[in-house]
Amino acid sequence: MAVENTGPEQVSTTAVLLALATVFTVLRFWARYQVVAKYGLDDSLLVAGLIGVFVVGGLNFGMVNYGMGRHADTLSLDQLEEVLKRLLAFECVYVTTVALVKLSILSMYLRIFPSRDFKIGAYTIGSIVIAWCIAIVLVSIFQCDPIEKAWIPWMTTGTCINLRASFIGNGVPNILTDVAILAMPVKQVWHLHATMAQKISLLCTFGLGSFVLVASIYRFSTLMSFNEEDTTFTLATPCTWCVVESACGVICANLPTLRPLAKKFSNKFGSSEKSRSRTNGSLGPTELVTIGRSQQMNSRITRTKSPFERLDDESSEGDAYDVPTRNKRLYREDPLT
């Protein structure tokens, strides 16, 4: 009788997601190079997040190599110990990677939405993400007393926390911060004096991260089948979805920055603006549109000869919004942080 094993599916899924996350990150920097955009904190955090995705993927490969995806009673004690050691590291790196991606997205928001109230909200959510990350890493490391009981659970001495409860404590704040980050731009975009089509287009751009929320919720649901007596089999699918979630977070964080490349290739394939793009050498709108402005910010922005259409905010603060029209572009020379 064949041994039940989900390891091959874990390996193939992980490999595909690592490749996709890498491709989209390369495209991000290519797009920035094409429009001569200045790099910011969001780029650095995203690269750190990509490195984290590779570490998470490598640990997943290592766990599969020692038996993750197979039932625990088919493995030797040495194999179980090696899997559980890597699982502890996996938990710490996974939550750190997810936090880096969230912080990268928040940093990108701060470059686009510089209004004071929005900054306060972004810094608040960022602080919650950092606190959540530190708490989960500490809980993962010190889940057992002594610590080594986490990878040698058959020790006759020592105690461990309720792992199912710790998974809930990890997953719920993760999902809630995802929802908060997705919802943050809605008010800013909705207050634009823009056409409904423009508003919907911008909301769809920022809403691309919703798949990460779906992945996070699904990963959380798979944890409900966790069985401490069969860790290597019942945690195989959740671990793979940790890779999916973190890699998709990197991919979705890159997507809003790829508009220049999308514009360039759409022009090549019959866009009505093809001739204009060739005339002015433009790729179209840069990937970062500034929404909201302050006195300080005006000194940081230069325009091409074709000005932006100024769209006023409907809020009481009277902030204004810069929205690209046709081939008009805005370059941020000194990104807000």
Question: What is shown here, in short?
Answer:
The protein has 337 residues and is mostly helical. It has helices at 7-34, 41-66, 77-112, 116-141, 163-190, 196-206, 210-222, 231-234, 236-254, 259-268, 274-280, 295-298; strands spanning 144-145, 159-160, 301-303, 309-312, 320-323, 330-332.
Word description of this protein:
By secondary structure, this protein is mainly alpha-helical. 63% of the residues lie in helices and 5% in strands. It contains twelve helices and six strands. It has helices at 7-34, 41-66, 77-112, 116-141, 163-190, 196-206, 210-222, 231-234, 236-254, 259-268, 274-280, 295-298, and strands spanning 144-145, 159-160, 301-303, 309-312, 320-323, 330-332. A two-stranded antiparallel ribbon has the order 1-2. Strands 3-6 form a two-stranded antiparallel sheet. The chain has a two-stranded antiparallel ribbon with strand order 4-5. β4 and β5 (320-323) form a beta hairpin. α2 (41-66) runs antiparallel to α3. The longest helix has 36 residues, at 77-112. The radius of gyration is 23 Å and the shape is elongated.
For the biggest sheet, the summary is: 2 strands, antiparallel
DSSP strand content:
5-15%
Please, how many helices? 12
In the CATH hierarchy, what is the class of the largest domain?
A: Mainly Alpha
The chain-level mean pLDDT equals: 80
Order of helices and strands: HHHHEEHHHHHHHHEEEE
Radius of gyration: 23 Å
CATH topology of the largest domain: Rhopdopsin 7-helix transmembrane proteins
Q: What percent of residues adopt helix (DSSP H or I)?
A: 55-70%
Corresponding CATH architecture of the largest domain: Up-down Bundle
Number of strands: 6
> How many domains comprise the coordinates?
2
Question: What structural class do the secondary elements suggest?
Answer: mainly alpha
Uncertain residue segments: 281-337
Shape: elongated
Strand order of the largest sheet: 1-2
How far apart are the first and last residues' alpha carbons, in Å?
Answer: 59 Å
